[in-house]
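Handout, section B. The chain below has 144 residues.
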Amino acid sequence: MSFKSGDTITKVLKKVGADKLGKGVNETVKKFTPSNSSKITMGRAKRGLYGGVHIKFGDQVSEDGGNRTRRTWKPNVQEKRLFSYILDRHVRVKVTTHALRCIDKAGGVDEYLLKTPYQKMDTEIGSYWKSTIEKMYEELEIYN
């Protein structure tokens, strides 16, 4: 299944509200979203923060005979509540342990989403929270 950026953009803009977004946020969302044919993402990765981790395929080799058995390695997915300081609330999301390490390294879920470019953001949830956080930052800069 391919990643449909047009569908994602319309869903994100519908949830956040295109008229509520600032001038720059709406343009950057459309500008930096990958094209329809550029990326393939597994289905459940679209519903969480997976940090680029996908199902891996390979062979399990027996020790004695060297027999090869085809198998898959699935990502280690956890359901977590991550605290967003800009939204001042917990966000419940499915996240891989790799993405959790990336979030810790970035300094929190807000910073992780802001530092991750839209080209690498292969989830609808991630794009939604990123645009929401960018909108909140723009509102805070206006009032300061």
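Note. Residues 34-143 form a domain with the Ribosomal Protein L24e; Chain: T; fold (CATH 2.30.170.40). Compare this with the example in section A.
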